[in-house]
Amino acid sequence: MRQRHEALTPDQTPEQRFAYTLRELRIARRYTLRGLAQEAFMSHSKVQKWEDGSRFPKHREEVALVDSTLNAGGILVDLWERATGDVSAPSRVSVSVPRVSDASIGLAIAGLQQAASDHEGTFVPARLQDGSVVFVALDRRDLLRGGVGVGAAAAFGMGAPEVAHASGLQKLKRPARSASAYSGTPIEHFKRARRLLIDSDNLLGPGRAIATVREHIEDIKSLRRDAKGSDRQALMELQTQYAEFASWLYQDLGDFTSAEFWLDRAFQWSHTVGDADLTSYVMARKAQLAGEKRDLVDVVDLAEAAQRIARPRSRLAAVARTYEAYGHALRGADSDSERAIEDVRNSLDRVASDTTPWGVWLTEQYVDVHRAQGLEVLGKHSEAADVFTAAIEALPEGYHRDRGVYMARAAIAHAGADAPEQAAAVGLQALTIATDTGSGRIMRELVRLDKALVPWQRQPEVSDFRESFSLAVAHEA
User: Does some domain include residue 86?
Assistant: First the structure.
């Protein structure tokens, strides 16, 4: 039976605008009222009253949970803040995009509808006429004046034909692969190619690698048809590793839907391989991705599942515990987060000799960065900024893109600590790396920074950052 929709007047009050937008987002995401309530762990009657406008939510955390469930990018949280005047709430439930205007809601919902039906959907940041920034689906760029800005195009790989047409790769008829075509073995060939792609990703970003990675996955599938015994098993393991890498590239590009898709494939294939370490690592990556999405529900559960799969006291157990720490911070559980970080720190010497190839980047600096990330969402901005700064200075050479991600997050912490000049200076460095590498993760953090710096927008340093950032994003017509 079709649900009856009460008449709403979104232009009359902020509360009605919230109810109207909640309904439109729910429909765009193809949820029933009862289904949304179950996913958000709320009563059906509460969500129904929010949507029909008879009751307005009292708690920001509840709104953030529904926003996260709908992948709304902070739209509902923003509308709640505008209706209540509560814009100073602690950032433990921070969202990935800044305030949106009424006009932007239609753009955002259109983007959500596109993403719901297109797993290749990629979003670019666009500045609206009111100065705010939202993420808009690529096929909506006809709504934007002058196309996508140079920085935005670079940051989302639009300048690379192989990215723009990645979804069409499978439509091309390609000759079958033959193992005899390789001087060594095809397994070694694709292993070397994967290592090179990983190295180039950190310097050049995800856009240039995605098409190649997906092509190699198809090549490996083709080789598996004729392979036997241990070769077939090794190819399946390699295919799983490539799928996990594809997920990472999409995650860095900012396309979380495709990232989830490839992680799911990697998780399924890892069970076929029978490699417990690989399965544990993929599960830990699921927890990491949930953290990137600021999912208040799944991060800790996924991280704990990864620890159950991992060998006791192993490096992979410590990796998963690191992501668990951030999940606790997102939930506001300060002591649980610090305890998890301390456990990981105490395990570093022990796990250094672990022979697994997964999680070799688990260093003191990596743990510190995740501790800083947790401190920032808990509202401990000054402490987070100090920890970020020290960790960034200690990063080894070559971590170009990762340095940009950490710099963008450090800049947000500086802004939260009322240090706008330092926030703007660090943000400009992160913006340079974003345009170098095409990292959507950096751009999403810089969107948050752009919003955080609004109170100081007349200061010269802040003005320089916001002007440079504005040139790097598209603009509403």
Answer: yes
